[in-house]
Known about the structure:
It is built from three helices and no strands. It has helices spanning 6-47, 53-75, 79-86. With 93 residues, the protein is an all-alpha fold. It has a domain at 28-76. The longest helix is centred in the first third of the chain and has 42 residues, at 6-47. The protein is elongated and about 65 Å long. 11% of the residues are buried.
Amino acid sequence: xxxxxxxxxxxxxxxxxxxxxxxxxxxxxxxxxxxxxxxxxxxxxxxxxxxxxxxxxxxxxxxxxxxxxxxxxxxxxxxxxxxxxxxxxxxxx
Length: 93
């Protein structure tokens, strides 16, 4: 039975962590867009307007907030990743 090296295991763990991080960002974006659409629909139903302006505004607001949060996470990684980079272990490989 072949034994994998610690480097391979470390690289595999880093790739799993990166995949989880990016899929989490995708879920955040989807939830924020859906929440904006839901709130917009509720406001449209309450105002009984002919056109769904609040829904459209809610979707765009959710999209803008979602992109902001995702971009912030990409540019300024959490503290745990900063520690790994400082110790010489890169998480983006």
